[in-house]
């Protein structure tokens, strides 16, 4: 089977990790994968071919580059799909579904679209007054309309898609949550050694949080509620970094906030870490907290659960699908509610035991072979609109 997909450029973050895992899932089944991109997306496999568009401009961000992508990608993808005689088209997001609409329509090949984050037509954003909101919604709508199968990462996104398309045509929407990866034993090194690297004592209490340093992650609420916990000898490790100028400004804002609250000796910014180092910090932490305002299904939360670290997070779609229990969640805008949960975790033995027990229960739910499920969902017959996917 020949599969065609596209990715503008790979950045750091869970969604991009999943894109690579998806490609690996196809390659492990001996599919031939053709991927169009602006920069090389390297995978060492004889059945993988990366087609790179060479643009005259050096920057890979900005309006000019985005306009070039909107104009050139559909044409290149059509030529690539026709030349390689692809059997199946896979879009990793509504925008890519839009870019792949032309080859899908002309070549008459089925298209499967993955949705990883809330879209502009979600119940939370559909009334947005942003200037580009209408154009974004139209692009995403066209991409999803031409999709033969849609795979959402959480139930809320699935419901939004069904609400948008379900009354207009029969649509095949499935849910595939992220899984918990296998945490290597090397990550479970002596937690005392990991703490010492940050100058944290064995008896100190450590909270960890992680993700791309962008405003939707809402890390500032953790910093603000920190003094309100009333917990002595408490430390916070913020793991991650940004990838845009806006992210850099947000990082600077967080660091200024830490200085304003005189928390320089208790709040640490680690930068981006390898998976092994990330998991070591999770294993050495007493509690993982994710205060995001918007998520698809955060890999870092699942990885923290996989390390056996007790977790609490925002009561929002994506996180709610993972944690499920009310006691494990909080309003991401309520500083006092977060501070109270942290305080109770470190002061109430029964409360912390309940958190630990429920997190172990949730962990067991997300231990499965994600790659196998991806392949089955993508190739499962029949498609509602397109032709059945040919046998490989």
- Give the integer mean of the pLDDT values: 89
> How does the helix and strand content classify structurally?
alpha/beta
- The CATH superfamily title of the largest domain: Glycogen Phosphorylase B
| SSE series | EHEEHEHHEHEHEHEHEHEHEHEHEHHH
Q: Order of strands across the widest beta sheet?
A: 3-2-1-4-5-6-7
Distance between the termini: 4 Å
The overall number of domains is 2
CATH level 1 class label of the largest domain: Alpha Beta
Number of separate helices: 15
| Integer-rounded radius of gyration | 22 Å
CATH topology of the largest domain: Rossmann fold
Give the name of the CATH architecture of the largest domain: 3-Layer(aba) Sandwich
**What best-fitting shape do the alpha-carbon axes yield?**
elongated
Largest sheet: 7 strands, parallel
Q: Which regions have little confidence, pLDDT < 50, spanning 5+ residues?
A: 125-129, 388-392
How many β-strand runs? 13
Helical content (DSSP H or I, runs of 4+): 40-55%
Strand fraction equals 15-25%
Describe this structure in words.
The protein is an alpha/beta fold and 392 residues long. It has two domains: 2-179 and 369-379, 3-Layer(aba) Sandwich (Rossmann fold); 185-365, 3-Layer(aba) Sandwich (Rossmann fold), CATH 3.40.50. The chain is built from 15 helices and 13 strands. The protein has a seven-stranded parallel beta sheet with strand order 3-2-1-4-5-6-7, with helices on both faces. A six-stranded parallel beta sheet has the order 10-9-8-11-12-13, sandwiched between helices. Helix 11 (299-306) links the parallel strand 11 and strand 12 (311-314). Helix 2 (63-84) runs parallel beside helix 4, helix 8 crosses helix 13 (335-347) and helix 13 crosses helix 14.
């Amino acid at each position: 089977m020949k599969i065609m997909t596209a990715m503008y450029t790979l950045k750091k973050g869970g969604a991009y990790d999943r894109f690579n895992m998806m490609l690996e899932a196809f390659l492990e089944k001996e599919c031939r994968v053709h991927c169009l991109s602006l920069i090389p997306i390297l995978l060492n496999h004889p059945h993988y071919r990366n087609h790179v568009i060479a643009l005259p401009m050096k920057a890979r961000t900005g309006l000019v580059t985005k306009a070039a992508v909107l104009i050139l990608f559909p044409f290149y993808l059509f030529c690539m799909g026709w030349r390689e005689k692809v059997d199946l088209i896979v879009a990793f997001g509504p925008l890519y579904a839009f870019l792949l609409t032309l080859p899908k329509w002309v070549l008459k090949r089925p298209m499967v679209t993955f949705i990883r984050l809330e879209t502009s037509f979600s119940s939370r954003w559909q009334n947005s007054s942003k200037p580009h909101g209408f154009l974004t919604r139209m692009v995403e709508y066209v991409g999803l309309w031409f999709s033969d199968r849609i795979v959402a990462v959480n139930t809320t996104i699935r419901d939004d898609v069904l609400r948008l398309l379900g009354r207009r045509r029969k649509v095949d929407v499935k849910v595939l949550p992220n899984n918990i990866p296998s945490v290597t034993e090397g990550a479970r090194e002596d937690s005392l050694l990991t703490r010492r690297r940050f100058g944290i004592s064995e008896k100190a209490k450590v909270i960890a949080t992680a993700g791309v340093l962008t405003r939707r992650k809402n890390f500032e609420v953790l910093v603000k509620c920190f003094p309100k916990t009333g917990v002595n000898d408490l430390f916070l490790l913020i793991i991650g970094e940004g990838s845009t100028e806006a992210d850099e400004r947000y990082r600077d804002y967080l660091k200024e906030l830490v200085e304003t609250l005189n928390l320089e000796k208790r709040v640490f910014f680690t930068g981006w870490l390898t998976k092994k180092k990330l998991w070591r910090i999770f294993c050495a932490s007493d509690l993982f907290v994710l205060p995001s305002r918007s998520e698809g299904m955060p890999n870092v939360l699942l990885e923290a659960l996989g390390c056996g670290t007790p977790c609490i997070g925002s009561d929002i779609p994506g996180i709610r699908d993972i944690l499920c229990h009310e006691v494990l969640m909080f309003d991401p805008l309520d500083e006092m509610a977060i501070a109270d949960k942290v305080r109770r975790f470190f002061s109430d033995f029964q409360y912390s035991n309940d958190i630990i027990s429920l997190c172990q229960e949730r962990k067991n739910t997300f231990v499965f072979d994600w790659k196998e499920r991806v392949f089955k969902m993508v190739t499962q017959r029949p498609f509602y609109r397109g032709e059945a996917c040919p046998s490989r």
